[in-house]
Every structure is written in C-alpha cells, then in structure tokens.
Amino acid sequence: MTTVSTSAAALQPYRRRWAALAVLLAAEVMDLLDALVTTIAAPTIQKELGGPASLVQWLGAGYTLAMAVGLITGGRLGDLYGRKRMFVTGALGFTATSLMCGLAANPEMLVTGRVLQGLFGAVMIPQGLGLIKEMFPPEEIGKAFGLFGPVIATSSVGGPILAGWLVDADLFGTGWRMIFLINLPVGLAAAVAGMLLLPEFRLSNATRLDLVGVLLVSVAGFLLVYPLIQGQELDWPVWTFVSIAASVVVFAVFAAYESRRARAGRDPLVTPSLFRKRVFVGGLVAGLAFFSGLIGLSLVFTLFTQLGLGYSPLKAGLTGLPQAVGGVIGFGLAMSGLQEKLGRGLLQIGTVVMTCGAAVLGLTIHLAGLDVGPWQLAPGLALVGIGMGLTMAPFFDIVLAGVEPHESGSASGTLTAIQQLGAALGTAVIGTLFFDLLERRWSFGSAMQAAVWVEIGLLALTFGLSFLLPLRPRPEQAGH
C-alpha cells in the first residue's frame, strides 16, 4: 500500500514528533472532557434552559450517538483527503460547535450543537492513530501510544470535577456555559499547532466513501435511540415501538447492502466477514452491554446526587472521585503485568469486582436512604472503578484477537463505534427507567437502586459473553 506523505519518520526531528504528539493528546483530552462534562452539568442546564427531563439524556446521547456513527467514517476521510487536513477540520469544527453550545439560547440549539460536536470529534480523533504510526519509528511507537493511558485516566478523574467547579464558579457570569467555552482556546490552539506541526498523510489507493452505508447506519441508530429517550415523556405511543422495530429492519438492510458492496469489489463501510465470526460478534454485544451499563449508571448517579441528595455540581463531581481513582488503580494493576498473565481472565475478574462494587453501592443506598453521605458511597464507587479499569484494559485487544490481520482496521473502528453506541443506549435506557420510576412516585433512593440492578444484569451478560472471547490477545495486537 503506497502513501502520499511528507512525513516519513526519518524526516521528522525528534522534538517535532513529540510536539505533534502533544497536539494529538490535547485533542483527545478535549473530546474526553466533553463526553463527561454534561453528565455533571446537565441538571443545572435543564433548570436554566428549561425543556423536558429528556434534555438531560440528549446532552449525552446526542454527542455519543453522533460520535458512534461518525467514527465509522472518520478514519476513512483521513485516508481520502489527508489526516492532517481532517484533523484540523475536525478541531476547527469542534471549536465552532463548542461556541454554539456555549451560546445556546434554547434546548434545541444546545442538543444540535452537541450532535455536531460529536460529528466533528469523530473526524478529529481517528486521525491520531495513523499519524502516530507515520511520525514515529518502530522503536518509539510504543512510548507514544503509552501516553494515551495516563491522559485518559487523568481526564476521567478531572473531567467531572472540572465541570462541577466551572458550573459553581460561574466565571464571568457564564455558569454552565463555560464547560463549552473553555474549548475555544484549546481547540484553536490545537488547530493552529496541527497546521504547523502535523505531517500530511493519505492513502494513494483510498476508495470513495460509502455514503449510502453512512446514511443507513445513521438512520438506524436514530430510529433506535430517539424513541427510547422520548417514549417515557410521551407515555410510550405506538410510534415509539414502530420506530424501534424499524431500526432493526434498517440495520438488516445496512448489513445486506454492505455484503453486496463487498461482493462487488468495492470498499464497504464495515467489513461483512466480521459478522460471521462468533468471537467478534460476542465481543461487540459484550461491549454494548458493558458500556451501556457503565455510562447509564454514571448519568443516573449524578442525577441522584444532585436532584435526590441536593448536592452542588462540584460536590457531585467530587463524590464520584473514588470511582475515577479506582479506574486509574485498575488500569495500573492491569498494566503491571496482569493483562499479559491473565488475558481474558482479567476481563472476567474485572466484571466480578465491578458487580460487587455496584452491589455494595446499592446496599449502601438501601440502608442509608437519602441520608447517605459521600464517604459512605466511596467504597462501592471505588470497587466499581477498579473493576472498570481491570475490564477495559484488556477488552479491545482480547476482542480483536478473534479477527484476521487484514480485518483489524475495520474491526477496531467498529468496536470503538459500538463503545459510543453503548454510551448512547445506556443514557437512553437507564436514564429513561430512572425518570419513569420517579414519575411513578418511587423515591430517588429506590429509583437509583433499580438502576444499580440493571447495571448488575448488564455486567452478568458481559461476563457470560466473555467466554466466547479468545484466551489471550495476539502478540502483534497487544497494546492496541
């Protein structure tokens, strides 16, 4: 495979390579923070802008659903039009839509801005993998990718706290809007630095984008998520169930279209042979269940602390700190050698630890009720975080071990998109359950416990499906 590139590793000075990597890491942080901040700020946003309770869910689901759809095509756009060009385009678009969110005058404008943020993020983020492989010689690639772990861990710890502080601080009278406006200097700096430091790279034999496939998968995702969020608010009219059923039909049409496209010798959006592999399909469903429960429970817990316990956004962010720190500990334990030693077993241990943490959290709320304090919640949250880190560390490498090397690019993109789709579904399903129970006059504590039981069920499903996965990752895929 030939490339059109001015960025051979040998031509990239040492300092320039690492400065360029810093630009990519800054973009990753911006994306990660924006995926987390509305979880903390959502109750304040809904109170100030008005709108229905579903606004709280759309702030997260709109972003992650758009990201899920966009990630499937974002990497391909870099192949076609150049990774540097697409990174800069994504960074500028992300910055502009952050401004749109920060200036939103009504819920509709804010949700539209969040969807556009997710789409531009999906253009920006996938370019990093190809650029790192192009910029760094083989002996430095491991070090370059190794920096992403601490960055992700730090963002997961700092994101909710930063969001809570920004909302409470009310800088320049902006209130919650600062969680978006803070992206303006970061995004502009990333775009300018990208233009100056990043090398250009594109595939010389890249094929045209599968626009029909993009349209089909976008429509299918929308038909599934929209009724799940709006159904509770509208008392579940018939059209919501029709829409969910139609999403299944459109997903099937998408699969058939992709198979036909592949047989015709054209590049499909998703490699159809992947879905004939029991191991990979099992991994996709396991990922969907795991990330749905993780993100859905995080949203509901934030609502519980702010609406049920009356915490400020900052206090809510700090209350969730044990889970974030536990995640860092779990990742650290996995990277200390457990991942190589235990393989799939580490993923299974992680789901068990996470289940125990969720059970402790639910029991604590059951016993203490609305008098529960942050220190009482900390043990359960810490266990959830440790289990999360242990599960996520080996997940991608283990699932990708079940595919052939020539399928790994498509498999990786599909798996990442499923992670985002799971986040959107978890926000929709568990958030809807929580609001529905409150409307039925359940207490906040009881509604929170119900959400915990749903999470335990999804973790049990993840654990069961894990037995379909390979015992160990392939050596060439380790550290993916």
A few lines on this structure:
The protein has 480 residues and is mainly α.
* CATH class value of the largest domain: Mainly Alpha
Q: What would you call the shape?
A: globular
DSSP E strands, number:
2
- Named at the architecture level, the CATH assignment of the largest domain is Up-down Bundle
Question: How would you describe what is shown here?
Answer:
This protein has 480 residues and is an all-alpha fold. The protein has 3 domains: 209 residues, Growth Hormone, Chain: A; 56 residues; 209 residues, Growth Hormone, Chain: A, CATH 1.20.1250. The protein is 78% helix and 1% strand. The protein contains 18 helices and 2 strands. A two-stranded antiparallel ribbon has the order 1-2. Helix 2 runs parallel beside helix 4, helix 3 runs antiparallel to helix 9 and helix 14 runs parallel beside helix 16. The longest helix has 36 residues. It is globular, with a radius of gyration of 22 Å. It starts with a strand and ends in a 15-residue tail after the last helix. The relative contact order is 0.13.
Considering the chains and any ligands shown, give keywords for the structure.
480 residues; mainly alpha; Growth Hormone, Chain: A; two-stranded antiparallel sheet; 18 helices; 1% strand; disordered N terminus; disordered C terminus
What's the arrangement of secondary structure elements?
Elements: E1 3-5, H1 14-49, H2 54-81, H3 83-102, H4 107-124, H5 127-135, H6 138-146, H7 148-169, H8 178-181, H9 183-197, E2 201-203, H10 211-233, H11 238-263, H12 278-308, H13 313-319, H14 321-342, H15 344-368, H16 374-400, H17 408-439, H18 444-465
Antiparallel strand pairs: 1-2
Helix pairs in contact: 1-2, 1-7, 1-9, 1-12, 2-3, 2-4, 2-10, 2-17, 3-4, 3-5, 3-9, 7-13, 7-14, 10-11, 10-17, 12-16, 12-17, 12-18, 14-15, 14-16, 15-16, 15-18, 17-18
